[in-house]
Design goal:
The chain is α/β, with parallel strands linked by helices. It has 18 helices and 23 strands. The strands form five sheets. The protein has a nine-stranded mixed sheet, sandwiched between helices. Strands 5-2-6-1-7-10-11 form a seven-stranded parallel sheet, with helices on both faces. Strands 16-17-20 form a three-stranded mixed sheet, with helices on one face. The relative contact order is 0.11.
Length: about 550
């Protein structure tokens, strides 16, 4: 067994308490002490990955450099730790069972009956240890999705129980996140939900080492003592997690609660030095003390669930802080956009982003949005489907190809300016078959894109099946829409921009997936700056 230490983060009482943010915050504090940290997420659903899930079901699908379609919590891990994750950082029940069944079909179990214990739990533990066995990490944090007591979570909790026995108390700890609700009628915080949650965990054979308690109000000494007594943890291991103004406040709040010290103490590791979080505090200072503000319209198909565009929202947070400006997002459903109401919807904005998506619903609204931004010279940013809509709008209204469309929306279109990639044409499976992960891009010198990146070779992450149809490229460039970014291996168009527009850029890739607190993405930084300049020009 390697020298890697393991932390398991479980949750109880209710979902959406913020296990991902707590995991990322703890990881940040440990990293700030000079330790090498990674975080993985175990999701209890039977989908092999979230790639086929509707955004309304599970929020955005986060894509890693190596092409894994993963849970959105991996985005938090990357934004906080500033290091990339991989396919090994997200494991689902579906992936576990798929791997075990593949092994059974290959005869690896030598004819034995395949069971949840030991075969499924062994496969879970293999994935728990996989990152630690690389020798790259001092600490591996494993977040167990769902709530303790859910049927779906039982094999994962059993695997945690076994892992704790195998690793020993100084190499493995369990952190349990729970809720301490405030009842207004009683005028007090209630500990019983947490007690019942810990009881569920104990019945599964796992004693939590640290309790992190979400609450709207501060936990006084009596509440902490009561929780410690009934949940069998030391009182200094009852950690308060009060509702925060921003997710980026949580590492600072956890530091005040000495969560990192409690963890290191359980591991019998030294913690005399203070964590180096000066950059984080500087970011928070800029975030909370903006000197200006801009209004940017986010036009999308899934705006009812804002987690559908989680990485875009956070990229704007990073870019806003970098520019010392507050980015006020206005959420606009693309189905609400008509040719006759664009001025009402967009006239007061300083910038417009057309978001990614799939399918034909709402695309005409996106096309009308692009037209308004192009004709009124409002800073425009199109991502993936957003770029494709910019290409279609230009074809229809500038190149006068009135029937131009994407073959995704109209397979029989006379002018498929967006077309299915050649290697996608014989694919029938939906899961994990898109163009996924990081691909290189060559930026044209002298372009707006080159001004943004300051270099000619970049790498960005993709998630799509349809591409710019290069048969039309010459006509586009003659009319003023140039391909400012090209994939050097297959000549696919990665970026487009308008030469006669102050700031109009579309990307086939997803730049939001690489924006972090420490390294805000330059496209978002420059887009926000363009919106600031546009706002100044109007006043």
């Amino acid at each position: 067994m390697s020298k890697t230490k393991y932390i398991f983060v479980t949750g109880g009482v209710t979902s959406s308490l913020g296990k991902g943010i707590i995991s990322a915050s703890l990881g940040k504090l440990l990293q700030a002490r000079g330790l090498s940290v990674t975080i993985q997420k175990f999701d209890p659903y039977i989908n092999v990955d979230p790639g086929t899930l509707n955004p309304y079901e599970h929020g955005e699908c986060y894509v890693t450099d190596d092409g894994a379609e993963t849970d959105l919590d991996l985005g938090h891990y990357e934004r906080f730790l500033n290091i990339p994750t991989s396919q090994n950082n997200n494991v689902t029940t579906g992936k576990i069972y798929y791997n075990v069944i593949q092994k059974e079909r290959a005869g690896e179990f030598l004819g034995k009956t395949v069971q949840v214990i030991p075969h499924i739990t062994d496969e879970i533990k293999n994935n728990i240890y996989k990152l630690g066995d690389t020798g790259k990490f001092d600490i591996v944090i494993t977040e167990i999705g769902g709530c303790v007591g859910d049927i779906e979570s039982l094999p994962f909790i059993e695997a945690v129980r076994q892992a704790k026995l195998e690793l020993g108390p100084t190499n493995c700890i369990t952190l349990h996140l729970t809720l301490v609700p405030y009842l207004k009628t009683a005028g007090e915080l209630k500990t019983k939900p947490t007690q019942h949650s810990v009881k569920e965990l104990l019945e599964a054979g796992v004693q939590p080492d640290i309790l992190v308690c979400r609450s709207e109000y501060h936990l006084d000494a009596d509440i902490r003592k009561k929780l410690a007594l009934f949940c069998n943890v030391p009182v200094n291991c009852v950690i308060e997690s009060i509702d925060a103004e921003s997710i980026y406040d949580v590492p600072i709040l956890m530091r005040k609660e000495k969560l990192d010290e409690r963890v290191l103490s359980r591991f019998k590791m030294s913690y005399k030095k203070e964590p180096k979080i000066d950059q984080w505090k500087e970011f928070l200072g800029r975030l909370k003390n903006p000197t200006s503000e801009v209004r940017i319209g986010l036009v999308g198909k899934y705006v009812e669930l804002k987690d559908s565009y989680k990485s875009i929202v956070e990229a704007f947070t990073h870019a806003g802080a970098n520019n010392e400006t507050k980015v006020k997002l206005e959420w606009i459903h693309s189905e609400d956009v008509q040719e006759d109401n664009t001025e009402k919807l967009f006239g007061h904005l300083d910038g417009i982003l057309v978001a990614p998506g799939f399918g034909e619903r709402g695309i005409e609204g996106k096309i009308s949005t692009v037209q308004y931004a192009r004709e009124n010279e409002i800073p425009f940013f199109g991502i993936c489907l957003g770029m494709q809509m910019a290409v279609i709008e230009f074809a229809r209204n500038v190149l006068k190809l009135k029937k131009a469309n994407s073959s995704e929306m109209n397979p029989k279109t006379k002018h498929p300016v967006i077309n299915l990639m050649e290697e996608q044409k014989n694919i029938t499976d939906k899961g994990g078959t898109m163009r996924l992960g990081a691909y290189s891009c060559q930026i044209k010198k002298g372009s707006k894109a080159y001004n943004v990146y300051g270099q000619s070779k970049i790498s960005e992450r993709h998630r799509h099946r349809y591409e710019f149809n290069s048969e039309y490229l010459e006509a586009y460039e003659q009319a003023g829409m140039i391909a400012s970014g090209i994939n050097p291996e297959n000549n696919l168009v990665e970026m487009i921009e308008l030469t006669d527009h102050p700031w109009f850029i579309g990307t086939q890739f997803h730049p939001e997936l690489k924006s972090t607190v420490i390294n805000p993405h330059p496209l978002f930084v420059k887009f926000v700056r363009a919106a600031m300049n546009y706002r100044s020009s109007k006043s």
